# Entry
Amino acid sequence: MKQEIIISGFGGQGVLSMGKILAYAALMEGKEVTWMPAYGPEQRGGTANVTVIISDEPISSPILSAYDTAILLNQPSLDKFQSKVKAGGTLIYDSFGIIDKPSRTDITSWHIPAMESAAEMSMMKCFNMFILGGFLKVHPIVSIDSVMKALHKTLPARHQDLLPMNEQAILKGREIISKQ
# Structure
């Protein structure tokens, strides 16, 4: 098993955190992992992205030009990375902020109304966990138990009270994702 993933969206949407939590969960399960975030001025307001590779075998390089899965949370990310999903791959997008829907027919596109659900449930701080839950339904490459352990390890002590809310968001994300 090998999954090469790009997660991209506006800075502040939890893109880098989502990649970090996914990578941590895979490490806890004994998998090989690379996590390569894009830091810089794009973190707040511009487009930020992170590449995560999870594999059962050693990973030769963290640099990718094409991805098995793209998780895209805004129009600039969709415009930039849709073409870089491998034929037969997966594209997951949140409809909030996406005007032109994915157009490729050689990949499977999944829609998740994460922003809408996060707002309805008053769980905006957990927006990225709705997305992660949807991804894990489509590609269950790590267990939710491992994700929760990774969250526990990565959330600062002052945010540990958000763990139940994050788990609820993951489970809801699994329910609300659907094929385009």
